[in-house]
Amino acid sequence: MKVKLLRENLEKDDLKRLVTNAVHIDQFKSKMGDDADICVASFKVKGKEPANDLVAFLEKGYDFILDADVSSGEQDGGDYLVFVEMDRTKDLPGNLMKILEDITNLTEQKTDDWTFTYYRDQREQEISEEALKNTVVLTPEEYRKRYEKEDKELDQLKTAAGVDVTTKAPVNDFTESIRIAAGIK
Fold first, then answer.
1. Which of 123, 126, 121 has its CA nearest to residue 110?
2. Are 122 and 136 spatial neighbours (Cβ–Cβ below 8 Å)?
3. Residues 153-165: what's their mean pLDDT?
4. C-alpha to C-alpha distance for 77 and 158, rounded to whole angstroms
5. pLDDT tens across 63-108, in order?
6. Taking the CB of residue 99, how many other CB atoms lie within 10 A of it?
7. What is the mean pLDDT of the segment spanning 139-145?
8. Which of 183, 185, 159, 181 minimizes the C-alpha distance to 171?
9. 112 vs 122: CA distance, rounded Å
10. Domains along the chain?
11. Is the model's pLDDT at 7 over the cut of 50?
């Protein structure tokens, strides 16, 4: 007997108690492009199907979301991560707050209950548009200025210690031509 899954749109409280009220920003690498250009926000969801439902909801509902995806494997306790990729712009805090407002309709949480952590700073903060503006790097230029020097210094330390350097070159026309000339793709 073949069973068909019935797919419906999410309604109020459909994800009640299934989405953790914390968002992690820029703690994962973008799969769509350079981290300086793209911000990755992640949410923890209890169960693969609810995570897939959240991804479908996010991808259909926002023109500013470049991509949304579910982690390939489960975390401790059967949780999955939902990754949301958006352009790094000054609109990012407002866009993220819009997403959270809509998620709260699905989870019965209040926006005031949400927290966020940003990049290398593991400090949990109450989320608000103002807190995001003050914490998250909102332009590619500022991101490069702030983090490329740190990454280069870390690579130099790894090289001096004899540890493999895993930092990847940026993807652009120049680096692609070098990869092609070297037979690397």
1. 126
2. no
3. 78
4. 34
5. 999 999 999 988 888 899 999 999 999 999 999 999 999 998 888 8
6. 22
7. 93
8. 185
9. 20
10. 19-135 (3.30.70.60), 140-181 (no CATH)
11. no
Give the mean pLDDT of 101-123: 88
- Helix crossing, 92-107 with 48-61: angle to 10°? 130
CA dihedral 134, 136, 140, 141 (to 10 degrees): 40
CA distance 49 to 51: 5
Beta bridge mates, 23: 43, 116
CA 185 from centroid of its chain's CA atoms: 25
Q: Which of 141, 26, 137, 39 is nearest to 87 (CA)?
A: 39
Assess contact for 139 and 89: CB atoms under 8 A.
yes
Is the Cα torsion angle 100, 106, 110, 113 positive or negative in sign?
A: negative
Distance CA 5, CA 99 (A): 26
